[in-house]
Amino acid sequence: MHWIFLLFAAIFEVSWAIAMKYSDGFSVLVPSIITVVGYILSAVFLSLALKQLPLGTAYAMWTGFGIIGTSVLGVFLFNEKLTVPQVICVILIVVGIVGLKLLGKE
């Protein structure tokens, strides 16, 4: 169950970051509210995951999922460009997350 909590934490992590972009510096009400609620839910689910998962593993995976999710959605939602070096670095993050899951104690 703790991995599910971590997954939800990561989903809310990406959600609040995307909503923050849409909030235009907290000047648009609905995305601003989504940002705050998503941030809180992300922290709540991360704290639940940390009851069973090691801090270093869980935090690295949480932030890694956030980086991957926001990078991909930034391309599709905001027409942001990814350079080849950026893509390589994101792939390395994916490899690191997979390694943490496969080689971790949990």
UniProtKB/TrEMBL annotation:
Major location category of this protein: membrane
A cellular component annotation (GO) from this entry: plasma membrane
Transmembrane segments: 27-50, 57-78, 84-103
Membrane topology of the entry: Multi-pass membrane protein
Localization per Swiss-Prot or TrEMBL: Cell membrane
InterPro entries in alphabetical order: EmrE-like (IPR037185), Small_drug/metabolite_transptr (IPR000390), Small_multidrug_res (IPR045324)
Keyword Cell inner membrane: no
Keywords carried by this UniProt record: Cell membrane, Membrane, Transmembrane, Transmembrane helix, Transport
Molecular functions (GO terms): transmembrane transporter activity
Homology family: Belongs to the drug/metabolite transporter (DMT) superfamily. Small multidrug resistance (SMR) (TC 2.A.7.1) family.
Annotated protein name in UniProt: Multidrug efflux SMR transporter
Organism: Pseudobutyrivibrio ruminis
